[in-house]
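Field guide to reading this record: the first block holds the primary sequence, the second block holds the structure written as discrete tokens, and the final block holds curator observations. Each block starts with its own label. This record concerns ATP-binding cassette domain-containing protein, catalogued under organism Benzoatithermus flavus.

BLOCK 1 — SEQUENCE
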Amino acid sequence: MALLELRGVAKHFGAIEALKGVDLTIEPGEAVGLMGDNGAGKSTLVKIIAGNFPPSEGEIRLNGEVQHFHKPADARARGIEIVYQDLALCDNLTAAENVFLGRAITRKLGPFKYVDYRAMYGRAAELFKELKSETRPRDLVKQMSGGQRQAVAIARTRLAEAKVVLMDEPTAAISVRQVAEVLELIRRLKHQGIAVVLISHRMPDVFAVCDRVVVMRRGTKVADKPIAHSSPEEVTGLITGAIRAA
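BLOCK 2 — STRUCTURE
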């Protein structure tokens, strides 16, 4: 049984058809590269999975059960986390404080409640170790590299015990060395049985870590095939329309 399944998902914004009957299945520990030109429907598809808005038609299933997400918190409660391109981190806080943002560990001391920073730093350190990241819990985010920032954002999804992690252009504006760090983080998620949907314009990244590539064009899925059975040239043709479908 697939971990995540989309059946006939469509989205209309007034007269505009952003998505037209998209089917998609993802298995545990599988990474799927989601590619397409601007306006192809990638972001709309991911936002539907993440609970930002409901599909106009079709259904979402998790482990075979139909889901109805009314807001992102509903999707998060079922194990779907999204790492946005801007990462949504607070520069003036430490790595650990960002990991636990909105989810602080608290303790009671008589009538008083306090934040247990020691526990948060300890758990954050464990998460960074799991991800084999050099990020340190007490470091301020504003002093971090792009790769370390991605580690903080991904650690936050691990804290929530995510089953599916949606990543929006995680390597768009970072150095070659930091790209390698982020791709290794994705491999770690896969190794832990977490499904990853990677939106990316960077062909080498998709072919390096993804098991399958899904190509969108004008709201329609035009290809869904194993990476091993495709090529960057074919994907480019599918994105531009030079190749109709594969």
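BLOCK 3 — OBSERVATIONS
The chain is about 30% helix and 30% strand.
The mean pLDDT is 94.
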